[in-house]
Design brief:
heterodimer, A: about 400 residues, alpha+beta, Gyrase A, domain 2, Alpha-Beta Plaits, Elongation Factor Tu (Ef-tu), domain 3, 3 domains, six-stranded mixed β-sheet, six-stranded antiparallel beta barrel, 9 helices, about 35% strand, globular, B: about 525 residues, alpha/beta, FAD/NAD(P)-binding domain, seven-stranded mixed β-sheet, 18 helices, binds flavin-adenine dinucleotide
Chain lengths: ~400, ~525
Amino acid sequence: MPIPTAFHSRAAALCQTQEWRDWSGYLSAISYQPSHEFEYYAVRNAAGLIDVSPLYKYEISGPDASRLVDRIITRDVSQCAVGQVLYTPWCDENGKVIDDGTVTRLEAQRFRITAADPSLRWFQDSGFGLDTEVRDVSRELAALAIQGPSSRAVLQACLKEIDLDRLPYYHAAEAKLGEIPLTVTRTGYTGDLGYELWIAAEHAEMVWDRLMEAGAGYGLQPVGLAALDMLRVEAGLLLIDVDYSSVRSAHIESQTSSPYELGLGWAVDLEGADFVGKRALLGEKERGAPRSFVGLRVPWADLERLFGAMDLPPQVAGRASRSALPLYVGRRHVGQATSMLFSPILKEYIALATVDSRYARRGQTLEIEITVEYKRQRANATVSKLPFYNPPWKKAVVGG
Amino acid sequence: MANNYDAIIVGGGHNGLVNAAYLARAGWKVLVLEQRHVLGGAAVTEEVFPGFKFSVFSYVVSLLRPEIIRDLKLVKHGLTILPLESTITPLPDGDYIYRGADPHETFRNLSRFSTRDAEAYREYGHAMYHMAKAVKYILGIRPPDPTSLHPRELLQLLKLGRHFLSIGEEHLYTLVKLMTMSSADFLEEWFETDPLVATLSASGIIGTFLGPRSPGSAYVLLHHYMGEIDGVFRAWGFARGGTGAISESIANSARAFGAEIRTEARVAKLLTNNGRATGIVLENGDEYRADVVVSSLDPKLTFLKLADPDELPRELVEDILGFDTYGSSGKVNLALDSLPELAALPGGGAHMRGAISISPSVDYIERAYDQAKYGQFSEKPYIDIIFPSMIDPSMAPPGQHVMSCFVQYAPYQLATGDWDGQREAFGDAVVNTLAEYFPSIKERILHRQVLSPWDIERSIGLSGGNIFQGELSLSQLFFLRPAPGWTQYRTPIEGYYQCGSAVHPGGGITGAPGRLAALQILKDGKR
Ligand SMILES: Cc1cc2nc3c(=O)[nH]c(=O)nc-3n(C[C@H](O)[C@H](O)[C@H](O)COP(=O)(O)OP(=O)(O)OC[C@H]3O[C@@H](n4cnc5c(N)ncnc54)[C@H](O)[C@@H]3O)c2cc1C
């Protein structure tokens, strides 16, 4: 039975639909209001508050902390200053992705790592021979994302002592909300301007209340997972167990993926320190990854044609769908779309997909399976650049 | 010569801009001339009072054609449409009727008045969907000329006839009713709850000089269901940044295709030579040459003012003189220091992000209409309200609000006095009516903008202040719009075209007249 997060009393009071999903054993609101679209637009147009406490969180400290983190992640920790945040995958010895998350360098030898799955044992075991301490802080740290173009204004109204205009994308700062100490990182899972707050669980409710109060005039609204899932697809962000499987849960080779196959080649640093899986990835880089992670756009005219033949307007889910669909080139099965959505803001049917690298060039036309009145049909799908949605204010330093 | 273009578009309203974008997209050298300092015509956002952005005239998007959004890449050029999904009708006794995004909630709400109505409401939506589908077809086509014997026209007519027969007898029957009945009569066949009939029928009178009991008003109801046809693509909502943002995105697209757009450029006259358009002259005397001139203005301006009536056939001039552009709507925009409470349902819940309709009974609206028939503005008018800042908080400073009130009736011609003398009295009547439902409204008003039909006419040139550039009555629709025989965007002057909402398929922020006219112009080709 899922249990409440540190924000539950507040979330439950606002969750009109009583629709909850089990996220890592915690109760997570799917949508607060009958129409999740308002929550989606709150993030795209104003600001939204998302309880992301169910993430697993670890702190790594000790004289060898940076060496341990370097050993775990595919990126180069020497490139990460104190106060900086890295998004990164981590792999097993064969270069297959175990999980992905963010690493915040709190001090020279103190890091905080978020993960989708429990990772204490892996992190501890990776530290063999090093002088470090790995602590699971998942329960003691509550996490709250505030996302959207107005998120800075709302948060700034609560954090008087720091200047958020000067906090760049993927950076962290220690701050105080009244008397409550917290870490603020300019990160998120929406592809918009946004921040995540890391707070001792006992202060969680107070932080929520302050933000909601400050956000009232800015249209701040609590946002559930239905909207979050749409936002992250538009942002081209991967979701474990949906867009890929951890090598830990894969049963067969083809269910595993390397970072290159997930479009995360940019996050693999083969020049820096050694890390688990590096040797395998050197080889794969040489050979080229057999599969690629791509964005797809399905032309609306195609959907109109397929549905029009049945005298219907195109019926596409109003929420992001996680039921994978096969992709074809002619009679050849070349991959699968794993997350798809009619993007309300782009007014386009879009998908995240894994395809045979031979068909992953931008502009390549594939076919995607679409079911029209129980009949399987195919529509065209064009390989396109990720992210689908990338507003200038996402990374802008001042203003926005 | 620098002043030479392939086409000149007169008027930078959204239709003129759509037309320009399509022509530029086809590689034409295009110039748009707009008299005002802002683009958009009836679709503009202006910061009339510092910090508060008003969608001065039109306030919701209902029918912007999906093909236009796609062809012109409007999303890329800045268009975002935010959802607007509920309507609440507060009642004088303190109760209310609420219809929202959650069908069960709507059902429960309607059941408080009549369970039969709550059930009928779903079926009604279903029936209207089929009607709208039948009619939608004509939104996307050039109207055939029923008086022509040209095989192409006959073929078009035949296709149209077949299309209507294909919708099935039962639906055809409903369609005929819709075309002929009054909205109240039509709706009373479905519902017994009077305020529900009143609110639904109100959408049949918007922008028309008809009452809910006037025959022909039922047809306009359909326009409200048209958006449903596009499924999730529906463009029914509120544009981020106000309606002006729609025009801006179209203008950005047109510029990206290479169109040139000038503001503060008022066109005085069409230039012709031997019955062919050759260009225009601005009021300041500047001349611009083009073989194609497209007017997005209403027919009175297009034929009687820009063109020289002497160059036109007499029947056309008479038809245009008779073309009904009598305005009957006003607009009151308010800047508020905080959100006023709706007495019937206090608080800032979801209902404040939707439409609020002051339409407590059919008689209430009909009485409002009665006054207008005799040349008075309605003392207790029908008001369609939204709070744009509840939907898009950037429309007002944090915590403060803008309120958009579309008001009927405000007849163009007052029996006593004129609008310059009566404008504020009209504003007072609106605010007093609002105060019955929002008791604290008066204390919250920081600024008020009152627009009578005269103001609409003066600022954007809509003759008579008619919001659709001509009454959407049956006698002025489809192949009769604006005049029989001259529906196909052409005019008797070669190279002179029309693309405003006076031509098929009519008013509203649809872009359809602008697009269809462009397709016709491109088909006729450069000369
Ligand atoms: C008060 C009001 C409320 C409305 N509400 C809605 C609504 O909520 N939803 C909806 O869909 N529709 C609404 N409408 C209708 C809709 O806005 C119009 O049908 C539509 O915007 C008309 O577009 P257009 O481009 O055809 O014409 P216009 O917008 O009228 O554009 C004509 C343009 O030509 C310019 N012009 C005039 N004369 C000259 C000249 N001599 N030289 C150069 N330029 C000139 C004008 O300044 C104007 O910019 C409303 C209209 C009004 C007036």
